[in-house]
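Recap for those who missed Tuesday's class. We walked through two folding examples back to back. For each one, the amino acid string is listed first and its predicted structure tokens come directly after. Nothing is annotated here on purpose, so try labeling regions yourself before you check the end of the notes.
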Amino acid sequence: MTLSKRMETVALMVTKGNKIADIGTDHGYVPISLVERGIAKSAIAMDVRKGPLSKATQNIKERNLGEKIETRLSNGLEKLREGEVDTVIIAGMGGDLVAKILQEGAFILPSIEELVVQPQSEIYKVRQRLHDLNWKIVEEKMLIEEGKYYTVIKAIGGKEQYEKEWEYLYGKQLLEGQDPILEQWLLKEKKTSEELLERLEHVDSPAGLERKKELLHKVENLKGGLAYYEGKGTDTTT
């Protein structure tokens, strides 16, 4: 089973030998790949939709993996039981939904060793929710696939809080590791935001002034992130 670059990045964050649950499994490609390669000992492929789950069941059967991969109809983590898995994967959903699934599944999280999440948007909300639920972010990877930027996060149980807003916005692990793809994204966003500010220079309507305020705040955060690449830590004076 060949995975996309994005899903392969997700798969490679799973600790080898773990039992996994894939939330929103769709057609079951990730658990199939993980079990076939011996990365996961066993898997539970979970989805809230009957159609995709039926297709996942079919794909698992075709590969004779029925003894190692179970499919389960579930809204988020609702049907997961304590002690069943070591790793939970939540990938390919919006950040608001990922955060919601984590919050609603808080009852089961203490029994989980690690989380691997790949939110499609509002990544900062997922980082904040992980911290709110006493999960520590230990690894992040950023990639580009078909012109789109993606971030994959790995977390384990533990208390942690970030001090700076840009650490939640862009990922402290990525910033401290001077991730080159993140740097590319930050520079691109900074250029776009500064060009918008130039266009709004003579706008004095309430809406225009509010937009300028938002953009100035965004640029300050982008500078905070880019300072890591200049060897200046959290210095935002440049």
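Example two. Treat it independently of the first, because the proteins are unrelated.
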Amino acid sequence: MRKRVIGICICLAFALLLGIGAYQAKTIKTPEVTSDLYSQEEITDAINVVKQEMNMNWKGCDLQEIYYAGDETSKDCLDWATRNDADESLVLLSTFYVGNDCEDGSLEPDSMYENWMWILVRSKDGQWKCVDWGY
């Protein structure tokens, strides 16, 4: 009987851990926006750079949605490429939630930020680099 109780407890603990992992791996919305400048793969690469930036340096923030801002917006930010010795710029827009445990004191806790811009640059066919963000 005791072995059965221990077995059930282990199974419940395992199920709980799986549930927590599934919750943390929630899907981030990434609506596809067509572009004459960049392929969907290039846009996805830029989105992954921002996701990595948020995972590493934006503790307590929960990315909800991120997408390409469009060709016109990216063209308008081409000066960012020049300032960063790069050839191309790409702008993403995002929505994210700032939790009460956010480590960045400049963000309002327990609030949602929408249309937050991420400016990325790269040299021709190089890797995207996030150089600025904000409104």
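Answers for example two:
The helical segments are 2-24, 40-57, 71-76, 78-83.
Residues 2-24 form the longest helix (23 residues).
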